[in-house]
C-alpha cells in the first residue's frame, strides 16, 4: 500500500497455491473479507481455517500468510489503511468511546489494544458487510469529490457493524454456556436423587414430573451428559449398593434384591450376573474368600431356574 495524502487502499485478490504471499507483517491495518474458496490462515504461528463469509482483521506487526491445497483458490477483498486514518478526536466527535462495545474501533482509541476476532458470516449479515466493502471499493475506484470522507465514514460504519455482529455472537455463546451449565446442574440434581432413592420405585414418568421436564427430553440430555440412560444409571447405582451389601452383610440374596429396589429376585440375579460377570452368591464368595454355603447355592439355583 502506498502511503499518500489518503493512506487507504482496497482491492480484490485471488490467491492460489502458486501465488501466495510470503509470511510477512506490515505497518498498516488489514481487514479481509473472504468472498469465495477456503484456506488455512497462518496467523502468528497458528493455523485457522477460513472460508467464504469470514471476515477478520490483521493489526500492524502481526505476522501472517495463507496455505492452500493444490488446485484450490481463495478470493478475498482486502481493505488496507494506516491507523492514522482515524483521528481519536474525530471518532469521539462521532460519539464513539471506550465505554461502548465497539470492539473493532477501540484499537483506534487506545493504541495498546488489539482485536482480531474472525467472524463467520452467513445470509443477510454477510450481504450487508459485503455491500459496505463494495461501497468503499466503488468510492476508491471512482475517486469522486469527497470520496475520502465517505470512505472514512463507511469504514467506521463497517467497524461498528462488525462490532455489533461480534456482540451478537458473544451473547449467543454466553447464552449457550448458561443453558449448558443449567443442564449440567439439572443432571447433577437428578443423579443425586437417584442415588438417594435407588431403593424406591423409579421411572422416567416419576422423574419427569418431579423435575418438570418431558420424559423424552430427560432421557436424551441424561444420556448426553452421563453416557447412560436413566434406567441404566439406576441399575448401576443398585448393583453397586448390592455389591456392598453382599460383601458387608449376611443378608439373603432375595432380601438384598428387595433392599436395592427389585421386587423380582430372579430379575436381580440375572441382571447382577450380566453386569458383574458372576452371580450374587459367587460374588459374595469371591469377595469374602469363603466357599458359598449350600443355602445360597440352593437359593441361586432356584432363582436361575425361574429365569
From TrEMBL:
<keyword id="KW-0804">Transcription</keyword>
<dbReference type="InterPro" id="IPR014710">
    <property type="entry name" value="RmlC-like_jellyroll"/>
</dbReference>
<keyword id="KW-0238">DNA-binding</keyword>
<dbReference type="InterPro" id="IPR003313">
    <property type="entry name" value="AraC-bd"/>
</dbReference>
<dbReference type="InterPro" id="IPR018060">
    <property type="entry name" value="HTH_AraC"/>
</dbReference>
<feature type="domain" description="HTH araC/xylS-type">
    <location>
        <begin position="188"/>
        <end position="286"/>
    </location>
</feature>
<keyword id="KW-0805">Transcription regulation</keyword>
<dbReference type="InterPro" id="IPR020449">
    <property type="entry name" value="Tscrpt_reg_AraC-type_HTH"/>
</dbReference>
<dbReference type="Pfam" id="PF12833">
    <property type="entry name" value="HTH_18"/>
</dbReference>
<dbReference type="InterPro" id="IPR009057">
    <property type="entry name" value="Homeodomain-like_sf"/>
</dbReference>
<protein>
    <submittedName>
        <fullName>AraC-like DNA-binding protein</fullName>
    </submittedName>
</protein>
<dbReference type="InterPro" id="IPR037923">
    <property type="entry name" value="HTH-like"/>
</dbReference>
<dbReference type="InterPro" id="IPR018062">
    <property type="entry name" value="HTH_AraC-typ_CS"/>
</dbReference>
<dbReference type="Pfam" id="PF02311">
    <property type="entry name" value="AraC_binding"/>
</dbReference>
Amino acid at each position: 500500500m502506498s502511503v499518500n495524502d489518503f493512506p487507504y487502499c482496497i482491492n480484490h485478490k485471488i490467491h492460489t497455491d502458486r501465488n501466495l504471499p510470503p509470511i510477512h507483517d506490515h505497518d498498516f491495518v488489514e481487514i479481509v473479507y473472504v468472498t469465495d474458496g477456503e484456506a488455512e490462515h497462518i496467523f502468528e504461528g497458528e493455523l485457522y481455517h477460513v472460508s467464504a463469509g469470514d471476515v477478520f482483521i490483521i493489526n500492524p506487526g502481526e505476522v501472517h500468510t495463507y496455505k492452500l491445497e493444490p488446485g484450490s483458490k481463495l478470493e478475498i477483498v482486502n481493505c488496507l489503511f494506516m491507523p492514522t486514518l482515524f483521528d481519536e478526536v474525530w471518532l469521539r466527535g462521532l460519539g464513539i468511546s471506550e465505554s461502548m462495545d465497539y470492539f473493532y474501533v477501540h484499537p483506534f482509541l487506545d493504541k495498546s489494544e488489539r482485536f482480531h476476532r474472525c467472524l463467520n458470516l452467513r445470509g443477510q449479515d454477510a450481504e450487508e458487510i459485503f455491500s459496505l466493502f463494495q461501497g468503499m471499493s466503488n468510492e476508491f475506484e471512482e475517486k469522486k469529490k469527497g470520496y475520502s470522507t465517505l470512505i472514512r465514514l463507511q469504514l467506521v460504519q463497517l467497524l461498528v457493524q462488525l462490532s455489533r455482529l461480534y456482540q451478537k455472537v458473544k451473547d449467543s455463546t454466553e447464552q449457550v454456556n448458561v443453558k449448558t451449565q443449567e443442564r449440567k446442574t439439572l443432571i447433577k440434581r437428578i443423579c443425586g436423587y437417584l442415588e438417594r432413592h435407588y431403593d424406591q420405585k423409579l421411572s422416567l414418568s416419576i422423574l419427569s414430573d418431579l423435575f418438570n421436564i418431558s420424559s423424552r427430553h430427560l432421557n436424551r440430555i441424561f444420556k448426553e451428559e452421563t453416557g447412560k440412560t436413566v434406567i441404566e444409571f439406576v441399575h448401576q447405582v443398585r448393583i453397586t449398593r448390592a455389591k456392598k451389601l453382599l460383601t458387608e452383610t449376611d443378608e439373603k440374596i432375595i432380601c438384598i434384591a428387595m433392599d436395592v429396589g427389585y421386587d423380582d429376585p430372579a430379575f436381580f440375579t440375572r441382571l447382577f450376573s450380566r453386569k458383574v460377570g458372576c452371580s450374587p452368591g459367587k460374588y459374595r464368595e469371591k469377595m469374602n474368600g469363603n466357599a458359598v454355603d449350600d443355602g445360597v447355592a440352593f437359593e441361586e439355583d432356584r432363582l436361575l431356574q425361574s429365569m
